[in-house]
Amino acid sequence: MSTQKTSWPEVVGWPASAAVTQINSDRPDVAIEVIPAGANVAPGYNASRVRVYFDAGNATGPVLYTPYVG
Length: 70
Prior knowledge:
By secondary structure, this protein is of the alpha+beta class. The chain has one helix and two strands; from the N terminus they run αββ.
């Protein structure tokens, strides 16, 4: 059973840049995509990807949803 972290609920509300730094620290093996909330993205699961959705209308760009591997 894998012990690698697969979700980051603690970064919800953080600035997107700080969330990316934390996720990269925990899982340097995944690609991190930073995406404005509401943007269209290709569907599908990817075990090597984490998507970070942020509020582009807010100056601090806080993370809106729990980022997870997929």
